[in-house]
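User: Just a sanity check before I run the rest of the batch. Below are the structure tokens for the first item. I only need the designed sequence back.
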């Protein structure tokens, strides 16, 4: 049996996922039969994947001085359904995009539209902060209040990633949710390494300047193939002092002007064609 190790490196965190695989098993070893996961198993896998992607984007594209905002609804402005709420967000997003573009700034965002069991609607928004983001949000959102606070980065955004992706399955106070994120935040690719013929996991190695987050260590079994896996996170020691300084759209490189070669494909003056 062998296992695959995937490693994602971020500014202040290293995430590791290890999973056994039958692909590199010993010669003559039979593959394990694939298990049919239950609906509950798949819901857990899908939620874990959504949280992981949100966490990776937070650790890549956002800083502690960016905004975690709440867009509320006045009672009389509450939407009749999720379709209408998404339209409200789309209208606000058009204004935000336009204002960021005017200032030559890139826009990164993640949001979760939520309606509680008592009928109250609101939108949680994570957005990269520029000098007047608070003014832009108030201009864009006309359905209620805008409440801004700086990102809270406990566990290097682990808790925030879980919060922004919550659903009625993870929070029974909610009736319905809809998560989405901007498309200009591609996910970082992990480094991969295969360990052949290992029956147990290697001991976790902690690099200098990092510590193991004990709450991140998790061992389980993949519901699809039945193989065991292990995940853990290494966090950087010391306080996070890095803040966003700019979101300016990078200028495209200037096109080099091609010089025309003199005399090429050009008939010389004063010479006539021979008859």
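Assistant: Here's the designed sequence for the first item:
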């Amino acid at each position: 049996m062998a296992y695959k190790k995937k490693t994602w490196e971020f500014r202040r965190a290293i995430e590791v996922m290890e999973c056994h695989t039958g692909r590199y098993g010993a010669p003559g070893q039979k593959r394990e039969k694939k298990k049919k996961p239950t609906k509950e198993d798949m819901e857990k896998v899908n939620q874990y994947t959504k949280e992981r992607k949100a966490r990776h984007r937070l650790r890549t594209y956002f800083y502690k001085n960016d905004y975690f905002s709440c867009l509320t609804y006045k009672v009389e402005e509450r939407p009749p359904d999720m379709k209408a709420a998404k339209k409200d967000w789309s209208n606000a997003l058009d204004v935000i995009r336009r204002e960021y573009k005017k200032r030559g700034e890139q826009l990164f965002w993640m949001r979760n539209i939520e309606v509680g069991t008592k009928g109250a609607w609101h939108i949680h928004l994570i957005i990269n902060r520029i000098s007047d983001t608070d003014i832009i949000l108030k201009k864009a959102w006309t359905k209620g209040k805008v409440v801004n606070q700086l990102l809270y980065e406990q566990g290097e955004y682990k808790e925030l990633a879980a919060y922004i992706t919550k659903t009625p399955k993870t929070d029974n106070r909610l009736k319905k949710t809809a998560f989405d994120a901007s498309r200009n935040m591609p996910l970082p690719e992990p480094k991969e390494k295969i360990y052949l013929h290992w029956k147990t996991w290697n001991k976790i190695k902690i690099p200098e300047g990092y510590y193991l987050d004990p709450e991140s260590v998790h061992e389980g079994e993949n519901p699809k193939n039945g193989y065991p896996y292990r995940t853990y996170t290494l966090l950087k020691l010391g306080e996070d002092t890095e803040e966003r300084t700019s979101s300016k759209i990078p200028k495209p490189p200037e096109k080099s002007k091609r010089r025309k070669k003199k005399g090429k494909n050009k008939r010389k003056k004063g010479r006539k064609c021979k008859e």
